[in-house]
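DM from R.C. (forwarded with permission)

"hey, sorry to bug you on a friday — could you get me a structure for this? deadline for the figure draft is monday and I only need the backbone to look sensible"
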Amino acid sequence: MLTVTFPAAAFGTNCYVVAPGPGEECVIVDPGIGVEETLREVLAEHRLRPAAVLLTHGHVDHVYSVTPVCGGELAAYIHSEDRYRLVDPLGGSSLGPGLLGMLEQQFGTQATWREPERVVEVHDAERVSVAGLEVDVVHAPGHTEGSVMFALDGVPVGVPDEAQVDRTLITGDVLFAGSIGRTDLPGGSHEAMMRSLRDAVAPRADSSLVLPGHGPATTLGREKATNPYLQDIA
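My reply, with the result:
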């Protein structure tokens, strides 16, 4: 499986491009702020053709570029409970006050938003077949109501053998290396996050490679052994 990861221009949000291999169709996961140019370079370098955009949740730092990336042709997949966030992710209720001002100060232009034309709502335990990939949707609320993880069989080419992983879990802002996503934003819930860690994360195989929404990759086995939030669950 070909997987390319690069950070967005703001908030260090990881954007993932996943394909069965070079020259194939691909999916783009969480195209955040200012990713368009890098994304064009990645697609050209590996001769990839976008087939869909997958969104782990509806916060602006994960969805800001979804409409230009989709281009009116590709569908954006998002959990039904976060669908409403695509109407206006720049609104003050999304990430709290001051965000728009910060973005304007950083990029020198006013942030704008246009809702994507094609949106597909997904649900827990649904399997999405796209770009030659089989992607399982795992609903894991807590960071937002509709936060999901995407589970795929196989791991990116180039993962060292000593990592001892055989599957991939793209966790968005549910699980990070050593931490979890914050739960104090509108739509967040600490209680829901703890349930998600217990019911959606902890039962999954230790041999899962974790690709989070921010920060470095890790493994689920490592997180179960060292992440204080998963240790609390145990």
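R.C.: lifesaver. The chain has eight helices and 14 strands.
me: no worries. The chain has a mean pLDDT of 91.
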